[in-house]
Specification:
With 358 residues, this protein is mainly alpha-helical. The protein has three domains: 70-199, Leucine-rich Repeat Variant, CATH 1.25.10; 204-272, no CATH class; 286-357, no CATH class. The protein has 24 helices and no strands. The protein has helices spanning 2-6, 11-16, 22-36, 38-41, 72-80, 85-95, 99-105, 109-127, 135-150, 154-159, 162-174, 179-189, 193-203, 205-215, 224-236, 238-243, 246-255, 265-272, 276-284, 287-296, 306-315, 319-325, 331-339, 345-357. Helix 15 runs parallel beside helix 18 (265-272). The longest helix has 19 residues, at 109-127.
């Protein structure tokens, strides 16, 4: 009987392993199964041994139960202002989920502004040590501001708080632990042109960013969100960037080949070439030669040459730079090679534009 049953065990293997005895195949599969289940057999729970207390999830313990209705905001605001740190921490964690924030901001501008103002008061109180706090609480509060900034009207509420904006720039300038999150908030807050104009007009944001970058020009890297924030500003105010000294700062970082300079520093630098003053300075320092050297550098290969070609394309809008480019005889060949990269579609468009001006 057992021999008859052995025919049907592991039938697929038996059919595809001709010349091997079915008993041997069954034995090998049993050994493999035993090996895979050995850890389960050795488990303390299987043998009824005491494994101590199990770690339970703290998700619901760290959050407050709130109704999804008009009563939610008064409840959260009350708990945020509570002197008990545990209650306040639960309210902060509840807000960090993001779903509640969208429902609050979508009602009307008054409730949205009041909500952001209350969160700002809590953040500033913890930021300047008026209340007991931890870095984790500061981090979660910044994440809440990121969610607010992503929302369509949230950025406007953030930018209306002078103390909050100053605190965010201060965190970046001091290189604090959560400076990257502060930069994320500002980057999301400047996605719309109205916000860019407001930020520059009321806070002189480009001057603040120039001061931040000037403090350590040779820094190996800066938060990527900081450059995104700067890009939004320089797209509208390239002339202000040149006046504040960003041309020299960014060009120095490009020459020093800072970390990911071709993704961040070079992109911001190219935006400065959109104004006449930037074009003049670029021609004066023979900047196209530096760009060309990046292109032909045999030692340090870049993962993307998109912004390098973008720099050449933008600079060639002046006749002087176009004539200077003609002196690099192998430049057309290099551009042709880059244009063949089908994965870099944007770079291909830049290459065609460079050909048009050659």
């Amino acid at each position: 009987m057992f021999e008859h049953l052995a025919k049907f065990r592991n039938r697929f293997l038996q059919r595809n392993s001709k010349g091997v005895a079915r008993e041997y195949i069954n034995k090998m599969t049993d050994e493999m199964q035993d090996r895979l289940q050995s850890k389960r057999r050795d488990c303390d729970v299987m043998h009824g041994k005491d494994t101590g207390e199990r770690n339970e999830s703290t998700y619901f313990k760290d959050r407050i139960a709130v109704p999804y209705s008009s009563f939610i905001m008064p409840k959260l605001m009350k708990d945020l202002a509570d002197k008990d740190p545990d209650i306040q921490w639960k309210a902060i964690n509840t807000l960090s989920d993001g779903v509640i924030i969208n429902s609050i901001l979508s009602r009307n501008s008054k409730s949205g502004y009041d909500f952001v103002r209350n969160i700002t008061n809590v953040f500033l109180g913890k930021r300047y040590k008026i209340r007991e706090t931890t870095e984790e609480e500061i981090s979660v509060l910044l994440e809440i501001f990121i969610i607010i900034a992503i929302y369509m009207n949230g950025a406007k509420y953030i930018l209306k708080s002078d103390q909050l904006v100053k605190a965010l720039y201060e965190m970046i300038e001091n290189g604090e632990e959560n400076s990257s999150k502060a930069a994320e908030i500002l980057a999301f807050a400047t996605r719309e042109y109205d916000n860019v104009f407001y930020l520059q007009e009321h806070y002189n944001a480009i001057r603040k960013l120039a001061r931040i970058l000037r403090r350590n020009v040779r820094a190996y890297s800066n938060p990527s969100a900081l450059y995104r924030h700067l890009q939004w500003l320089l797209e509208t105010f390239p002339d202000v960037g040149v006046k504040e000294g960003l041309f020299e700062i960014l060009f120095t970082r490009i020459k020093n080949r800072a970390c990911n300079f071709h993704k961040y520093d070079l992109k911001c630098f190219v935006l400065l070439l959109r104004c006449p003053d930037g074009q003049k300075r670029f021609a004066l320092i023979d900047g196209i030669k530096e760009i060309y050297e990046i292109l032909v550098d045999p030692i340090r290969k870049l993962d993307s040459y998109e912004n390098v070609v973008y720099a050449i394309m933008t600079a060639m809008f002046t006749k002087k730079i176009t004539l200077r480019c003609s002196q690099f005889v192998d430049l057309p060949r290099l551009i042709t090679q880059l244009a063949k990269d089908s994965k870099e579609t944007i770079m291909q468009l830049y290459c065609f534009q460079v050909y048009f001006h050659m």
